[in-house]
Helix-turn-helix transcriptional regulator (Candidatus Scybalomonas excrementavium), 640 residues
Amino acid sequence: MSISFGNTLKELRKKQKVSQRQLSRGLCSIANLSKIELGEREPGQMLFESMISRLGKDCKKWELILSEQEKQLIKKINDMEYLVETKQWNELRRKLEQAVEVHGVSQKLYEQYQCLLYAILYREQKEYKRAIQYSIEGLEKTEFSIKENRLKINTIVSKNELRILCLIGKILLESNKEVRTYFETLIDPQNVEEVDILYYWKSLLDYINKHCTDPWYRLEFYLETLYYLAFIAYEEERYKDCIAYCKQGIQQLIERKSTCYLKKFLLLLKALREKQSLAELEKMILFDHLDLFLEIIEERKKIYKEIQEVQQYIRSYNSIYSINQVIKNTRQYCGKTQEEMMQTQDGRSVFGNQSGISKVENGKRTPRRSRGQHYLKNLGLSGKEEYYRLAILGKDFKIQELMWELDFYIANHEIEKAKEIYKMLEEKVEHSNPYNEQYMKATKLMIQSMDSPMSCEQLLKELYDILAITVKDVERLKDEEEGDVYFFTREESILIMNIGCAYHKKCDYEMARKYYQKVERYFRDWYQVSNGGVYRSISYNLSQVYGLLGYYEQSIEKSKACLFMELLQKRANGWCCILFNLGWCYGKMMQQERDMQKKAKYQMYCEKFFKQSFCVAQFYKDETVINTIIRKRKLWNIKE
């Protein structure tokens, strides 16, 4: 069964009772949308993202096979997002001014993205009128009319449209009365009244609650909106309302293991704490180590300046590959000639010529979709030939959302919740599809291995068997040379990582390192902008195994890289564990060191990172890390 992006898009649109006119507004013609829904045309990545986010879903959970040109565009966007996050404004402006070759709908959407970034730049420089002008210009690129919608969103909007609308809210909040009146006259030249900022942010929250139905897509916007509503309430001395918004935000941060707007919420709570009359109210939401937590956040940001090879860590959460790279790498792995690539399985027909395939492999030509799919099937990649692919297949999008929730709870070792969702998913998924079968069996195995003891030999055998459902010649994978690379789905790469985890559990750390490094090389050397989530996980696993092998300096460097990626992706899934690993490495170095001065230094760092890890674990309610630190402190005589 092959479910195209068009099928999924159509099902989502109809389920949400969104018309083709609403979805395509300012993006493409209704005729083009119809062709996309029929599977006759693939959208560019920026159009894909706009459509999916208008339907309130997270585009970053798809596996995308793009042209080399589009992959490079995504790489540039990732780089610019990093510059925004790290407040490197001069470098951001330089990047923005570099010419980028984009065409058709992508050009208009990239121009909208440029307007967004220029508006961010001018806001930082407090040139608020120019920031508003760029914001409105960006919205107009996709025919969103401020005048028509006034201060309430009366239509569905894409991710970048919503980012611009939130940015306008921040500009209005920070600027003076003159700027706010200026904005109001842009909406209605006859109206010179000052805009109602509270109403504006409440309207944004209403839209997010109603239309951003995917919890991960919704999260960042929801937290942003809650924070600014809390800030407005604080400024107006409505402290109970402020605390109520803060409670909602912090609850989401803890539940979703996120760091989005964490520092801002904590600073607001610190300001509330200084209001002596609120002593009882603040006990409801403040924890004991607020100041320490703020110090930890600030210190984590210093890693930006220390991290080596920053570029390899800047990647979005989704799996992004270029069709050109996939064809070239997989052909070389399979040992096929370019002439063999042109033939059908019966050897009678010819697709293209050797010169054309060479241009494809060098990124100078993008094959037509039908020809590209032929090449992928010819290379044994049947089931992976859709360019916009979800991890498991089925017309009901609910199975995707259940899968993402299931992955989240497994990653955070919340086994009872994972079991509950697995049972729901099991009833909905079509098990006859090999990729669905692989995912369900792999997930069931992970739940079983965490829930009850399982021998490492049994775990390894089952992992290899599950991987063999979709990967031919698994035996070759065991002895694979460094230069060889197949094309793996995200789930297949996770299975290989889990093989490493089984060896890790078996205390065969050298074999664990071999498999971890295999996955790391795959993303680092072959697909450099793909899958930040898996890359972060494999880096953390490597940091652990380096430490267990006694390579403490390497472990520390990997841990810092993990912190860097967690910060970029606004995740906190492994934050306290990474800090613990840093403390553990320094503790082991302390035990082995004979030089008393160095020993004291290592002890200081051990105490510091254990203290930080304990604080973060308390906030995110990770009892496993808390109990582990208590034991280690007692064993190593480390003070609290």
Remarks:
- Strands lie at 63-66, 319-322, 388-389.
- The chain has a mean pLDDT of 90.
- Residues 596-620 form the longest helix (25 residues).
